[in-house]
Structures are given as structure tokens and as C-alpha cells.
From TrEMBL:
GTP binds at residues 127-134, 209-213, 273-276. It catalyses: GTP + H2O = GDP + phosphate + H(+). Its main location: membrane. NCBIfam families: ftsY. It comes from the Bacteria. Involved in targeting and insertion of nascent membrane proteins into the cytoplasmic membrane. Acts as a receptor for the complex formed by the signal recognition particle (SRP) and the ribosome-nascent chain (RNC). It is an enzyme of class 3 (hydrolase). This is Signal recognition particle receptor FtsY. Coiled coil: none annotated. InterPro entries: AAA+_ATPase, P-loop_NTPase, Signal_recog_particl_SRP54_hlx, SR_rcpt_FtsY, SRP/SRP_N, SRP54_GTPase_dom, SRP54_N_sf. It is a peripheral membrane protein. Keywords: Cell membrane, Cytoplasm, GTP-binding, Hydrolase, Membrane, Nucleotide-binding, Receptor.
Length: 331
């Protein structure tokens, strides 16, 4: 069976609404990327060096990342030779297959959170201002709440005006309590309070918001360290996840943010927001390949249920849906 048909079968086994969310959220990327790939494969009669050069440009244009693209092109060339592929149309399926391989290579846990079975799980969210930390926490609180978990949120962004209230609005919306102190107070003290409350209420999961001013890098990193120290001291083994939130619309800049944060703190995974707002959704692959960090969740819109656990196959389907459907229908 062809790769596209297998892909279609795999995603068909999952909930339709998930496929739809990925498809909708990736529509901008798909429109620009697919259009260019389609145009490429229809202009070329054979798969030659020039074909690969153009393909390289298209992939880099979609923010897949230069070194990832280089790896990919090398593997594509090998595969094309090995399978003796002459028809450029056939290369699309090979690209999508290789993209999945690239993403899934490596051993660490790619999806889901490191949840503790019978004790409190603490998740710390870090990232610069405006990337979507607070929104993501609200969405994740909603997700766990609807799974029947006892959820609590900590308003650790005490720096920015309105940040505490913003989290409270989410709390009301999703029916989850927020532990807070007044604006300007020490975020580490907020975390201490939040952990005591979480223990007293036997919460399953505590979601910790933080401030994100990058212009004051040294202070921010010191503050994060202090917050982390308090969490570590109060809950052995915590934080169980440190999720770095990145805004997909900032492109390669997101990668440099990731490097800065990774140096300062032990980031365990990425939440990539606003994929719906960019035509360069290839950034997922660059993050995975160049930072070696898994993308745990993707933001596909502003609504409560627009945050989805990242799924490689849904993502690749979201990028190649037109080509996949063409092939499935024409056979
Ligand atoms: N379209 C879209 N907007 C998002 C997404 N995630 C967050 N946002 C928006 O990004 C803006 C900043 O989010 P916020 O949570 O305040 O960022 P923070 O400063 O990191 O806490 C808000 O207007 C959010 O609604 C997403 O996945 N898609
Ligand atoms: Mg915020």
C-alpha cells in the first residue's frame, strides 16, 4: 500500500475532530507549501539536481530549518535512487514519509506529559511575553479538568499588569482555581503558596505561569531559577515538566529563544502556539531536529479546545492533505 494511503488509514482511526483541527490549523502552511510543491512536481519531468534545489528552497521557505532541510534532501536523494523514482509526482509521498522519520527518530518520550500516578504533577511554563503561556495554561487546565483531574493554577507572572487577572479569567472559564498574590510580589512565594494549596487539596496537577520579559534576560533567568528551586524543594522530583512556549509566527526567532531558555533551565518540551497564524508551519520540524526537544502541544487557534497534543501523522496529513486525498480518490 502506498505511504499516503497508510497515512490516511492511520489518521482515520483517530477522532475526526482532531484531524479537522490539525487540518484547519495548518491551512495557511498547507496552502503556501502544497501549492509550491504541486507547482514544482508539475513543472519537472524528471527528478534531477535542479528539482532538489528548488525543493530545498521551498522547505527552507516553510521554516523547516536549513540543517534539517539538508538532512532531508540527502535522505530524499538516497531514497529516490534506491526506489528508482523517475516521476516527480511520486516524490511528495517520499517527502512526507521522510519528514515523519525525521521527527520520530530519537528515543525520548515524544507525546504526552510526564504525569505522576498518585501524587502531584507540577508543570512549569516558561517563554517570552506574548507567546501564549497564559492561554496555553488555560487550555491545558481545561483539557485535564475535562478528563476528571483535580487541577490548580499558579499566577506566577506577577510582573505584567493584568497577567494575574488574565489567568483568573481562564480559571473562571474552565472552572479551575487560581492561586495568586498581589501584583509585584515574589513569584517564588506564589509558587510556594500554590504548592501548599495543591497538597492540601490533593490536586493532581499544578500548572505554573511565569513572567517573560526577555529584555531583562539575566533577571528573568534568575527569577526562573528561584521559582524552580522552590518547586524542587517542596515537591521532590518536580517540576515534572518545564514547557517552553514558543510562538510559531516568530519563525527562526523561536529557535534562538529556545536556545537561550535551554541554557538557563532544563526545558523538557515545547508548546508551539499560533500554528494557525503562520504559513511557515515547518518550524515544528526545525525545533525537533535542531533542538532535539519534542513538541508536546500545538496551538491551532484561540479557543479552549484548540490546543492539541502534537501528533506527527496528523501534522503531516495537515501539510499534505490535498495530495493524500488526490491519491486516495484516484485509486
Ligand atoms: N491564533 C492563536 N492565538 C493564540 C494561540 N495561543 C495564544 N494565542 C494568543 O496570543 C496572545 C498572547 O497570549 P498570552 O497567553 O497572553 O501570552 P503570554 O504573554 O505568553 O502569557 C493572546 O491574544 C492569545 O489569544 C494560538 O494557538 N493561536
Ligand atoms: Mg501571560
Amino acid at each position: 500500500m502506498s505511504f499516503f494511503k497508510r497515512l490516511k488509514e492511520k489518521i482515520t482511526n483517530q477522532t475526526d475532530s482532531v484531524t479537522q483541527k490539525f487540518k484547519d490549523g495548518l491551512s495557511k502552511t498547507r496552502d503556501s507549501f502544497s501549492e509550491r510543491v504541486n507547482d514544482l512536481v508539475s513543472r519537472y519531468r524528471k527528478v534531477d539536481e535542479e528539482f532538489f534545489e528548488e525543493l530545498e528552497e521551498i522547505l527552507i521557505g516553510a521554516d523547516v530549518g536549513v540543517s534539517t532541510v539538508m538532512d532531508l534532501i540527502d535522505e530524499l536523494k538516497d531514497e529516490v535512487k534506491r526506489k528508482n523514482i523517475q516521476d516527480p509526482q511520486e516524490v511528495q509521498a517520499v517527502i512526507s514519509e521522510k519528514l515523519i522519520d525525521i521527527y520520530e527518530s530519537g528515543e525520548e518520550q515524544l507525546a504526552g506529559l510526564n504525569m505522576q500516578q498518585d501524587s502531584l504533577t507540577v508543570v512549569l511554563f516558561v517563554g517570552v511575553n506574548g507567546v501564549g503561556k497564559t492561554t496555553t495554561i488555560g487550555k491545558i487546565a481545561h483539557k485535564f479538568k475535562s478528563e476528571g483531574k483535580n487541577v490548580l493554577m499558579a499566577a506566577g507572572d506577577t510582573f505584567r499588569a493584568g497577567a494575574i487577572e488574565q489567568l483568573e479569567v481562564w480559571g473562571e472559564r474552565v472552572g479551575v482555581d487560581v492561586i495568586k498574590q498581589s501584583a509585584g510580589s515574589d513569584p517564588a512565594a506564589v509558587m510556594y503558596d500554590a504548592i501548599q494549596s495543591a497538597k492540601a487539596r490533593k490536586a493532581d496537577i499544578l500548572l505554573c505561569d511565569t513572567a517573560g520579559r526577555l529584555q531583562n534576560k539575566v533577571n528573568l533567568m534568575k527569577e526562573l531559577e528561584k521559582v524552580k528551586r522552590v518547586i524542587e524543594r517542596e515537591v521532590p522530583g518536580a517540576p515534572h515538566e518545564v514547557l517552553l512556549v514558543l510562538d510559531a509566527t516568530t519563525g527562526q526567532n523561536a529557535l534562538s529563544q529556545a536556545k537561550i531558555f535551554s541554557e538557563a533551565t532544563n526545558v523538557t518540551g515545547i508548546v508551539l502556539t499560533k500554528l494557525d497564524g503562520t504559513a511557515k508551519g515547518g518550524i515544528v520540524l526545525a525545533i525537533r531536529n535542531e533542538l532535539n526537544l519534542p513538541v508536546k502541544f500545538v496551538g491551532l487557534g484561540e479557543k479552549m479546545d484548540d490546543l492539541q497534543p502534537f501528533d506527527t501523522e496528523q501534522y503531516i496529513y495537515g501539510l499534505f492533505a490535498n495530495a493524500v486525498e488526490d491519491e486516495v480518490q484516484n485509486s
